[in-house]
Design brief:
heterodimer, A: six-stranded mixed beta sheet, four-stranded antiparallel beta sheet, 9 helices, 10 strands, B: eight-stranded mixed beta sheet, 13 strands, 25% helix, globular
């Protein structure tokens, strides 16, 4: 994959979302380059999920714009994409991993069918090839091959989340949005998932926007970090720098609130 | 084989407009039909009326038939290929009562054939209209329950999900196990549910010289396939579409290459396979074809000859 150092993959400018008179997110601007992992941290209600939904086009911004460099090299204002272009982008060049894996899966469709859905959506019409790709991806996310015909309802929480990741990555996206990907999983499962994610992100050169309230997850996965409070980004920088030497009082509070074992 | 000539005004019920529906309603339905013909395979919403029969008994098909029926039409109604089951008999009687039209069981003689879940074996001709009764018009429904979403998927031509369903079939059964309501792509654009006809009948829809109209009363949708339109059954490159095959010919008329119904004969596993299209079967028997299980009707029933008509 060619890395284009000069032009960001995604650029947010003055992103703002008001819910009536309440502020969801206010004046957020940042660049994301290919292969870069940025974490958005903050307490509940700080606007980090709103920001993620704005970036991933699930919410319409009150003000501001998101520009994205498409696979053909053209940088477009995502607000000007039509429905077909937007949906095509979402199921080819993007991935979305939500906290609840059930949102990202068809629970009544087998694991193989879930992984193959995007391929079939892109027009693949060869069962053998689709199944081969599905098996390959199950291997990569460490799900046993003989579970390919089981439905996700029979999977544990950690397996479901890994299946969501396989389903999203099968079209080789360049950008993945993650909203608390390890939330609700117990610590050992979390550790395994984080390990897997870290490997995949590095192998595939994925750009990731990661929303988490767990600073340890941010530390492990992200290169850069943005700290949000009351809908604004109050501090950003390299992850180690921000977490080891927080400048803002609120960030210092967040860092010091982490429980030590 | 029976042809009942049209009864004319004296024998029809009084107090109803011709073919039951009022003229404004028929115009509304005709507009929907015309739009459906103009956009092959697209589901056109229409203001479905209450009919004097329960939803699920063909209210959509009856409304379409009522809207296109003229006094000179000859109507045939079939239910699972049969002219003489309850649904077929009562719909035929309904139009005899309210429109006084001639009816027939002979496919070739009919100008309009209303059908529940079969396409007649005799090839349809130009000028004939086949009206399907449709329970659930949306082929994507069982995978995507949101109507707003399925409409958008149709609009954008996003039909990957339809193949997910076929994928699931192969993964579970080693073959595409969908045998009826088998999804088709019409004119290279819209994916359509051909109503619960056996997939055996799908190839008959392809470039048929007859006009095919689909009415779903409860779901309030009408769609159409104009004559000579491409209708392609969805499949995989390595699992191509195949029609049902039968081991033996029809037990009564010895026909092969037709769709057969299984009839259980006793409690000891006895069974026979007979043509699902009764008109086709009777026609063949009248022409002297005899199946291995064809017997003589007792004299008391007017038997003694092969043709029981």
């Amino acid at each position: 994959m060619m890395l284009d150092g000069d032009h960001p993959l995604l650029a947010a400018q003055d992103l703002t979302k008001h819910y009536g008179s309440r502020v969801g997110c206010e004046g957020v601007s940042f660049d994301l380059h290919e292969g870069e992992v940025v974490a958005i941290v903050g307490e509940s209600g700080s606007g980090k999920s709103t920001l993620l939904q704005l970036l991933s086009l699930q919410l319409e911004a009150t003000r501001g714009a998101v520009r994205y460099r498409l696979r053909d090299g053209a940088t477009r204002d995502l607000g000007t994409l039509n429905d077909a272009e937007r949906r095509f982008l979402m199921r080819t060049d993007w991935g979305y991993v939500a906290q609840d894996a059930a949102n990202g899966l068809r629970m009544q469709v087998s694991a193989g069918g879930n992984v193959g859905e995007r391929l079939m959506g892109l027009g693949q019409r060869h069962y053998g090839n689709i199944r081969h790709d599905a098996l390959d991806w199950l291997d990569r996310v460490e799900i046993d091959r003989d579970r390919i015909d089981d439905r996700p309802v029979a999977f544990s929480g950690g397996m479901r989340q890994r299946l969501v990741i396989a389903k999203n990555l099968v079209t080789k996206p360049r950008l993945v949005f993650m909203d608390e990907p390890t939330g609700g999983l117990d610590v050992s499962v979390q550790a395994r998932l984080l390990d897997l994610l870290r490997g995949l992100v590095a192998d595939l050169g994925l750009a990731v926007v990661l929303v988490t309230h767990d600073l340890a997850v941010a530390r492990l996965l992200s290169h850069r970090i943005m700290v949000m409070r009351h809908g604004r980004v109050i501090e950003q920088g390299l992850t180690d720098q921000v977490l080891d030497d927080p400048r803002e009082a609120y960030t210092q509070l967040l860092v010091s609130s982490v429980l030590q074992v | 084989m029976t042809v009942v000539p049209k009864t004319g005004a004296p024998k029809t019920e009084t107090g109803y407009n011709f073919a039951y529906l009022d003229e404004q309603t028929k115009r509304m339905i005709r507009r929907a039909i015309l739009k459906g013909i103009a956009i092959p395979g697209y589901q056109v919403p229409f203001a479905s009326r209450e009919m004097p029969m329960p939803f699920g008994w063909g209210t959509g098909g009856v409304q379409v038939t009522a809207a296109i029926l003229g006094p000179d039409d000859v109507l045939k109604v079939i239910d699972q290929g049969s002219d003489d089951t309850t649904n077929a008999v009562s719909i035929r009687k309904f139009f005899v009562k309210t429109a006084g039209v001639a009816t027939t069981t002979v496919t070739a003689d009919a100008t309009i054939v209303q059908t529940r879940h079969r396409i007649p074996e005799a090839p349809l001709k130009a000028g004939q209209i086949l009206v399907y009764q449709v329970p659930i018009p949306e082929p994507l429904r069982f995978l995507e329950p949101r109507e707003t979403e399925t409409r958008r998927m149709h609009a954008l031509g996003e039909y990957g999900l339809m193949h997910v369903k076929l994928y699931e079939d192969i993964a579970r059964h080693k073959t595409i196990a969908t045998t009826y309501a088998y999804p088709v792509k019409v004119d290279g654009r819209y994916v359509m549910d051909p109503s619960p006809t056996p997939k055996f009948d799908n190839p008959k829809m392809h470039r048929s010289p007859a006009l095919q109209l689909f009415g779903a009363g409860r779901e309030k949708r009408i769609y159409a396939i104009p004559p000579h339109t491409d209708v392609v059954s969805l499949d995989f490159d390595d699992y191509p579409f195949e029609v049902n095959r039968f081991e033996q010919p029809c037990g009564l008329c010895n026909a092969t290459g037709v769709y057969l119904d299984e009839v259980i004969l006793d409690d000891a596993g006895g069974r026979m396979f007979v043509c699902s299209d009764t008109d086709h079967c009777e026609g063949r028997r009248a022409n002297g074809h005899q199946g291995p299980m064809l017997g003589e009707a007792p004299q008391a029933f007017g038997g003694g000859k092969a043709d029981d008509a």
